[in-house]
């Protein structure tokens, strides 16, 4: 944006036709309404640039550090069960919210995006990248993982385990729980018996 002094010098040597243009430019810079003028004054006000030195403070930083205990909006995490997967210092044995069909469908979607490349769509540990030579993770259907708690899986996704890195920055806490619900559905689907099938659907399976 041209300063008023430069604009004045330019007008002195300018063609008369440009004088009209300069007049419009000056009006545009200062605004024609109270709101436009206020907006321009706010834009031109004195301020410090990010990380600029400021001798007013002893540490000479213009960007002030957060006050101890400050919590950013939307980051107040008081529900330890939901955000850490722990209850009384132990991996949670339950989910922090009801598991519905919509939750499992959400978990399936997230699982197929983030988990299936290594763990496989059936949870058998034979995902596409494993077939290309990456280290194979254990199957979700082995006895050890069938007996693990939801809190254990939440901890693995949050903090990583072995060759698997943390997914905390990629998958939101509620989606991690949704994925765990879907993993349990996968485990049940691969290890269920006919007695686990609801009666109204059992007859149809027996006829097939």
What report would you give on this structure?
This protein is mainly alpha-helical and 208 residues long. Helices cover 50% and strands 2% of the residues. The chain contains eleven helices and two strands; from the N terminus they run ααααββααααααα. The protein has helices at residues 4-12, 16-30, 34-44, 80-84, 101-114, 116-119, 128-131, 143-146, 150-159, 173-191, 199-207, and strands at residues 86-87, 90-91. α5 (101-114) packs across α10. The mean pLDDT is 86.
Helix content: 40-55%
Structural class: mainly alpha
Provide the residue-averaged pLDDT: 86
Q: Give the strand line-up of the largest sheet.
A: 1-2
Assembly form of the protein: single chain
Q: How many strands, which pairing sense, and closed or not: the largest β-sheet?
A: 2 strands, antiparallel
Rg, nearest Å = 31 Å
Residues in β-strands, percent: under 5%
Q: In total, how many beta strands? A: 2
- What global shape is seen? elongated
Instruction: Report the order of strands and helices.
Output: HHHHEEHHHHHHH
Poorly predicted spans: none
Number of helices: 11
What distance lies between the first and last C-alpha atoms, to the nearest angstrom?
Answer: 78 Å
Question: What is shown here, in short?
Answer:
By secondary structure, this protein is mostly helical.
List its salient traits:
single chain, 208 residues, mainly alpha, two-stranded antiparallel ribbon, 11 helices, elongated
